[in-house]
Design a protein that fits this description.
Blueprint lengths: L4 E4 L4 H8 L6 E2 L14 H16 L6 E12 L7 E2 L5 H11 L3 E12 L4 E13 L4 H11 L18 E5 L3 H5 L3 H10 L10 H7 L1
Parallel strand pairs: 1-2, 1-3
Antiparallel strand pairs: 3-4, 3-5, 5-6, 6-7
Helix pairs in contact: 3-4
Length: 210
């Protein structure tokens, strides 16, 4: 049986790197999706909706494929899940976000969708990961932001870099979810579609046979 084509509906270099760890050949497509939060929409509902919307946005380009969509937002524990920490964009907003996070817990919601384009069937899930922050000084916050420039990252930090120095403890089932793509859940979804990551042809095998 021919293995279905795998497509990542994202231009994120972090998600691309994470998916590449599975060793499967895949294509990349850029989804054109409005990521604005709907009125009254909570964090989990938002990431589930956007993950599926991203997958469906590119589905017509790939008949008989499995398309992966994902989205992530963060919020402070104890606050309404509609109060989302977005990408700061500026140094001032990044300082504000990390100052609010200091000594507190930031909750990350990562939506995942695996869409079978042949019949438009989708599997979806939301992975929750908690980051417990150290109590940080103003100088530490400013130094971190100036060194890593995390202005395009939700919550104003990069967990795969110096961001680890900001944390007291991590809590969750899959650390990959914190970076943006829950690989453990994705492996389960692929298995449900008949794709065994360990026995499927690898990227290198696919390239050699092409």
């Amino acid at each position: 049986m021919t293995r279905p084509r795998l497509v990542l509906a994202s231009t994120s270099p972090f998600r691309r790197e994470l998916l590449a760890r599975l060793g499967l050949p895949f294509d990349i497509a850029a989804p054109d999706v409005d990521e604005a939060q709907l009125p009254g929409e909570g964090a989990e509902g938002l990431v589930l909706r956007l993950a599926e919307s991203k997958a469906r946005a590119v589905a017509d380009q790939f008949p008989d494929a499995l398309v992966i969509g994902s989205d992530q937002v963060a919020g402070l524990a104890g606050e309404p899940d509609r109060a989302i920490l977005g990408k700061p964009g500026t140094r001032e907003r990044a300082i504000e976000q990390l100052t609010r996070a200091s000594g507190r817990t930031v909750v990350f919601y990562t939506g995942l969708c695996l869409l079978r384009t042949g019949d438009a069937t989708a599997q979806t899930a939301c992975e929750i990961f908690k980051v417990h922050f150290r109590t940080l000084t103003a100088d530490q916050i400013a130094a971190y932001i100036d060194r890593e420039q995390p202005l395009g990252c939700a919550g104003s930090f990069k967990s795969e870099g110096l961001g680890i120095t900001l944390f007291e403890r991590l809590e969750g089932d899959d650390p990959n979810a914190l970076i943006g793509l829950p690989l453990i859940r994705l492996v389960d979804m692929l298995a449900a579609e008949g794709v065994d990551v360990l026995t499927a042809p690898t990227s290198a095998q696919g390239a050699a046979g092409s």
